[in-house]
Amino acid sequence: MLTKDFFFNLPDELIAQYPSSERGNDRLMLLDRWTGEYKDLMVSDFPFLIDSGSVIVVNNSKVRKARVYGTSESGGNVEFLFLSENGDGSWNAMVSKAKRQKVGKRYSFLLPDGSVYVHAVILSDNADGTKRVGFEHPIGNEFFSLLGHVPLPPYIKREDEFSDEQRYQTIYAKKEGSVASPTAGLHFTPELLGEIKARGVEIYEVTLHVGAGTFLPVRAENIEDHHMHTEHFEIDEETFNSLNKAKKDGKKIISIGTTSLRTLESSADESGLLRLREGSTDIFIHPGYEFRFVDSLFTNFHTPESTLLMLVSAMAGKENIFRAYEHAIEEKYHFFSYGDAMFIRS
Fold first, then answer.
1. Helix runs in 168-236, H state only
2. CA 330, 332, 333, 339 torsion: positive or negative?
3. Could you tell me if residue 292 is left (phi over 0), alpha (psi between -120 and 50 degrees) or otherwise beta?
4. How crowded is residue 19: how many other Cβ atoms within 10 Å of its Cβ?
5. What SS3 class is residue 245?
6. Nearest-angstrom CA–CA distance, 297 and 314
7. Structural domains in the chain, sorted by start
8. 337, 181 Cβ separation under 8 angstroms
9. If DSSP codes are grouped into helix, strand and coil, which group holds residue 34?
10. Do residues 297 and 288 lie in contact, with contact meaning Cβ atoms separated by under 8 Å?
11. Within 10 Å of residue 283's Cβ, how many Cβ atoms?
12. Which of 264, 265, 256, 254 is nearest to 300 (CA)?
């Protein structure tokens, strides 16, 4: 299939720049995975759409305030998006105006009062276009807490605000490491989770740290030629065993978000059971993929020509997805990270 086959026109005004006034006060489109029938609802209706005895899986990764501004020796302002730490204390980072940020160039990271928190230098260029950045002393949570900004996605055309520190984080976020939120989970409140549990539905947590590659466009003409970025996932032993038991017992597995789904499908083998508790995944799910573990998906509305749009098209069928998206645009649903939701039900 061609990448251009997944293009659709989306009016700019439907790209959500802010979350709803209250967490969970969002629209929900119910889409039947097999028939393509859809229905307009609210996220508050979600608990009543789940069969008793089903299992829900969420991603508990926590977003790091990974966007930090450094000052070059010439006084220029340079944006760093810190992605991952290396074993030697250096970090891999995406850097603004990357061609100008040469190996050996030095930077100062300043506190709000103008004093220097730490100096850094670019050690090398990575093959993927990122930079390896070394620091004069190790950095950690304090560095990001004091100097960092919430790494809002590029289609949100504003600077981060104080409210984003809470609203761009799921209520069950625990393990810090993501540079983008697993945004399907942003709709959930303690009350909503309580209603779900009251209906006899079990909720389990997995971890997949979302990388900046989630926003990278598909540049290949044929989607089969696209190579996915790599992300790390973990499933604790109790969850691993419980999910396999649920699958053997014939319970429906509902993934909250594409990151939870990619974790489960990366762990599962041809038998339909989870086999890996931890690993790195570059799984690319597109039409033609045979799902091994997940039955249903709660997700947001995705960008044109994106791997996430291809993933939901694999689950519900491209024609069904595009008809549903056309309806969503007509009804002025809000799209992307801070937008409305879709439940693809099996």
1. 190-198
2. positive
3. alpha
4. 22
5. helix
6. 11
7. 3-63+165-345 (3.40.1780.10), 67-147 (2.40.10.240)
8. yes
9. coil
10. no
11. 16
12. 256
pTM of structure = 0.94
pLDDT in tens, the chain (346 residues): 999 999 999 999 999 999 999 999 999 999 999 999 999 999 999 999 999 999 999 999 999 999 999 999 989 999 999 999 998 999 999 999 999 999 999 999 999 999 999 999 999 999 888 999 999 999 999 999 999 999 999 999 999 999 999 999 999 999 999 999 999 999 999 999 999 999 999 999 999 999 877 777 888 999 999 988 889 999 999 999 999 999 999 999 999 999 999 999 999 999 999 999 999 999 999 999 999 999 999 999 999 999 999 999 999 999 999 999 999 999 999 999 999 999 999 9
175's tokens:
């393990």
- Is residue 325 within 8 A of residue 10, CB to CB? The reply is no
Q: Looking at the chain, how many residues does it have?
A: 346
Which tokens belong to 139? Answer: 């950095």
What are residue 141's phi and psi, to 5 degrees?
A: -60, -35
Judge contact between 138 and 89, C-beta under 8 A. Answer: yes
- Cα angle 243-244-246, degrees, rounded to a multiple of 5: 65
Structure tokens at 90: 């250096």
> Can you spell out the DSSP letters for 251-318?
PPEEEESHHHHHHHHHHB-TTSSB--SEEEE-----TT---SS--EEEEE---TT-HHHHHHHHHH-H
Structure tokens at 141: 């949570």
346 Cβ neighbours under 8 A, 6+ residues apart: 33, 34, 252, 295, 296
The closest alpha carbon to 152, from 187, 183, 130, 112, belongs to 183
How do strand 91-95 and strand 278-281 relate by DSSP bridges? unpaired
Cα dihedral: 42, 45, 49, 50 (round 10): 120
Q: How far is CA 10 from the centre of its chain?
A: 20
